[in-house]
Write a structure and sequence with these properties.
alpha/beta; 12 strands; 23 helices; binds magnesium ion; about 625 residues; four-stranded antiparallel sheet; Rossmann fold; binds adenosine-5'-diphosphate; elongated; six-stranded mixed sheet; ABC transporter transmembrane region fold
């Protein structure tokens, strides 16, 4: 049967998560056999004790009491061992799943990750893993109930086969009905977990947007949206619990059947002298393994299915492809090198402006207009000045909707290039492709002589990417900075902070570098966050600096400070900067003007700033900032 194959496939995958599966399963098997025999042993001891009482034989009573005591202590020890072993197994599975899920989130292509709803991912990491890590334990409990019932039934047969048989017959009937009732639980569990994922996503979405919701007076609609999701969870939970309730009701009835049979039929046999009093009580105590435990078996079966449902939600993420550099057909990515340095393919949409030329790049410090002596201490990249060549690059987030269209540009090593264009024209996307965050296809992107389609992960080692919204992790400032370079010394950290114009406010706080950063760095202003982010970028060595509108959400004063830090950071690197700042465009060796995902013009600021160009329409009448 297909579902059975799927279930055994899932169980094999769970096994794959255990560190030493052979040893674990051996221990569990030994425990299982011992725990399964324990009730039969207990019933045997109880029968001996009661029959000794009835026979009024004092020495027999003492001996039987001693055996009974021994069996009870043994049972308690085994029970305790079993619980602790199962808890350890559950925790191990939870840890391994968390690890694997986290790794898969971090290692999947960024594009794919960005499409996953965060709340849903968080709920897979928490509630799904909590449920799914119990899967082996639930299987164990299921097997223990079955084996205990088997051992009990075997001993009951030796006591009185007619009563035992009558009693045992009640079991399968109870089980078959319960199995049928609980079948939909697997599906219902998936539905419930999905609904929980959606409500978490909505909650996160609402909480992160509280400011926007308040400012648009959208509290009611936000609440309504959330309530719709919350109602879906309630509905899914009710649907699932109705199956559990029906199952529980049936098992309540089914579990009483063997007792009724044993007392009724066994009592009749005792009256006829074919069964002792100890025998009846032993049978009743063994019935405990056929009645309630079978009810538990129904529940365990339902729980196994529920755990597997949750596990499948975990594996859905684990099975998403990793961001692995593809190996070219000839097996040699290093041979996919660029052929010539400067031969832009003909591009109908590219309208180079008359006179456009790459100007010789002057010393970047003079460009920055600063003479800060600390700039001399900026770590020089080992392979300074890598050129960038983009040919026929297109890119789409959603299939069929390209946001970059047939882009071809050349950026000489060590130059400063500005990307200009209206919001939404594709600047950030292009920068992320250059940063090796999105794999270029179709078209090619070379940094130096290496093809990013095959070596995007290498690109991440040589590029320094400064995003529009800098991200600080919760933890200490030092940890945030050392993310870029774990071996950075105290002096290097301070130096980077000083260049990024961040040392002063870091030192002003008594925590200094050990100051705690709250979630997402909310304890710092936008400008401070960006300067810290620049310091972090400076600590990473790399030949290409990619800057994406770093001052779009900071005040004017911060903007000035950030740009002067950035201009220092640009020393000795190839720089691509998306910005609306005219001042930077004026300093740039080359400006590429983008519109609707295409490069529509390129040239220096002076070349482009002429009547009739798209660039001049961007510059318009505004002072130091382009429209966009
Ligand atoms: N993660 C994404 N998923 C889908 N579309 C996106 C995503 N990011 C950006 N876009 C779309 O791609 C286009 C270019 O965006 P972007 O590169 O951010 O432009 P810019 O930085 O020039 O403002 C826009 O139309 C935007 O809506
Ligand atoms: Mg952008």
């Amino acid at each position: 049967m297909k579902t059975r194959a799927a279930i055994s496939g899932d169980l094999r995958r769970v096994t794959g998560l255990i560190e030493s599966p052979f040893k674990t399963y051996l221990q569990l098997s030994l425990l299982l056999v011992t725990e399964s025999l324990e009730p039969a042993l207990g019933a045997f001891a109880l029968k001996g004790l009661l029959d000794a009482f009835v026979a009024l034989n004092a020495s027999l009573v003492w001996r039987a009491a001693l055996v009974f005591f021994g069996v009870t202590v043994f049972g308690a020890l085994i029970g305790g061992t079993g619980v602790s072993m199962r808890v350890r197994l559950v925790e191990e599975l939870a840890r391994r799943q968390r690890e694997a899920l986290m790794r898969s989130g971090v290692e999947m292509p960024l594009l794919q990750f960005e499409k996953l709803p965060r709340g849903d991912l968080a709920s897979r990491l928490t509630s799904d893993i909590t449920v799914s890590s119990r899967v082996i334990t639930e299987c164990y409990l299921l097997a223990r109930v079955a084996l205990r019932a088997f051992a009990a039934a075997a001993y009951m047969l030796t006591l009185n086969w007619q009563v035992a048989l009558a009693c045992a017959l009640t079991g399968p009937v109870t089980l078959v009905v319960s199995g049928t009732i609980s079948r939909p639980i697997n599906k219902r569990s998936m539905e419930l977990q999905t609904a929980i994922g959606q409500v978490s996503s909505e909650a996160l979405n609402t909480l992160e947007g509280v400011q926007a919701i308040k400012s648009f007076l959208a509290e009611d609609s936000a609440e309504k949206r959330f309530l719709t999701r919350a109602s879906a969870v309630r509905l899914a939970a009710v649907r699932m619990s109705s199956v559990f309730a029906l199952n529980a009701a049936w098992m309540g009835t089914g579990s009483l059947l063997p007792f009724a049979v044993t007392f009724g039929y066994g009592g009749y046999m005792a009256v006829q002298g074919r069964l002792t009093i100890g025998g009846i009580l032993a049978l009743v105590s063994l019935c405990n393994n056929l009645g309630w435990p079978l009810a538990g078996m129904g529940r365990s079966l339902a729980n196994v299915r529920r755990s597997l449902g949750a596990f499948r939600r975990v594996t859905e993420i684990l099975d998403l492809p990793r961001d692995v550099d593809p190996v070219p057909a000839d097996g040699h990515p290093e041979q996919h090198v660029i052929e010539s340095e400067w031969d832009l393919p003909p591009d109908a949409n590219l309208a180079p402006v008359e006179g456009a030329a790459i100007t010789e790049r002057a010393d970047s410090l003079s460009r920055a207009g600063t003479t800060d002596p600390s700039a001399d201490a900026i770590p020089e990249p080992e392979d300074a000045g890598l050129s960038i060549t983009v040919r026929g690059l297109s890119f789409e987030y959603i299939q069929g909707t390209p946001v970059l269209k047939d882009i071809s540009i050349e950026i000489p090593a060590g130059s400063l290039v500005v990307l200009a264009g209206k919001s939404g024209c594709g600047k950030s996307t292009l920068i992320k492709v250059l940063a090796g965050l999105y794999r270029p296809y179709p078209g090619t992107v070379f940094i130096g002589d290496r093809d990013l389609h095959y070596e995007a992960s290498w690109a991440r080692t040589v590029t320094l990417y400064l995003p529009q919204e800098p991200f600080l992790f919760s933890g200490s400032l030092r940890e945030n900075l050392q993310l870029a370079n774990a071996e950075a010394t105290e002096a290097e950290l301070r130096q980077a902070l000083s260049i990024a114009d961040a040392l002063e406010f870091v030192e002003r706080d008594e925590g200094g570098l050990d100051r705690k950063v709250s979630e997402r760095g909310s304890s710092f202003s936008g400008g401070e966050r960006q300067r810290l982010s620049i310091a972090r970028t400076l600590l990473k060595r790399g030949a290409v600096l990619l800057v994406d509108e770093p001052t779009s959400s900071v005040d004017r004063e911060s903007e000035e400070r950030i740009w002067s830090s950035l201009l220092l950071a640009m020393k000795g690197k190839t720089c691509v900067v998306a910005t609306h700042r005219l001042e930077i465009a004026a300093r740039a060796d080359l400006v590429f003007v983008m519109d609707g995902g295409r490069i529509v013009e390129y040239g220096t600021h002076a070349d482009l700033h002429m009547p009739g160009t798209v660039y001049s329409s961007l510059v318009g009448e505004t002072g130091g900032v382009m429209a966009g």
